[in-house]
Amino acid sequence: MRTEDLIKALDADARSKAMPLGPAWWAAFGVAAVVAAMVFFMTIGPRPDIMPAMHTMRFMSKFVFTLALTTSAFALIRALSTPGAASRRAKLWMLVAPALVVIAVILELFAVPEADWGRRLVGSNMMICMSFIPLIGIGPLAIFLGMLRYGAPTRPVLAGAAAGLLAGGLAATFYAAHCFDDSPLFVATWYTIAIAILTALGALGGRLFVRW
User: Fold this and answer.
1) What would the pLDDT profile of 151-170 be if each residue is shown by its tens digit?
2) What is the rounded CA–CA span in Å between residue 194 and residue 129?
3) How far apart are CA 104 and CA 108, in angstroms?
4) Residues 6 or more apart from 130 whose CB is under 8 A from it?
């Protein structure tokens, strides 16, 4: 069978599902958000001073990064789960979140004395960050990998990695409400590592469970 014929067959299979793929993705994301919220509130919950913290730019900037990542990863995984769908634009949008973090880090380096750079980078919750972002995100990751099987991705490893990025962005959004380390230096380092763990797990899951 030619590649073009395979893609058409997969696309026809994806369209024949009981629920169209687009609404199914929104439903899956809603369920994943509920699962992440349950894990978050049953374990660490928001920081006690969250209301005053919401009036600070550093605290709110964390959500700008995590929500940008979540939004762009959601667009990418929807494109990758549909055979023949264009994903180039969605891939380009994935550059937004890293670019925002880089800008925030540069501004932080100008605003903070060099002697404080190391302390702000290490923070006080490094291990909690790298533990709880994957913990909060593992349930959503399983849901997103299941949705990839509901669709018909032609690049399962890449689609799985996108699922990990989406789960990581969602989990990091919840974790950011608990995290006491608001410096962009901390976010750029430890949030990225924690999200990368979920991305690697997603790529592995795509290879093992989303193959055709």
Assistant:
1) 878 889 999 999 999 999 99
2) 7
3) 6
4) 190, 193, 194, 197
State how far the Cα of 1 lies from the Cα of 135, in Å rounded to an integer: 42
E strands present in 16-67: none
* CA gap 200, 212 in Å, rounded: 20
Range of 158's domain?
3-209
Tokens 């900037």 correspond to: 61
- Indicate the burial class of 57 (C-beta count within 10 angstroms; 0-12, 13-18, 19 or more): exposed
**pLDDT per residue over 36-62, tens digit each?**
999 999 999 999 999 999 999 999 999
- Say what the pTM is: 0.89
Name the residue type at position 43. Answer: T
Q: How many residues does the chain have?
A: 212
- Tally of structural domains, the chain: 1
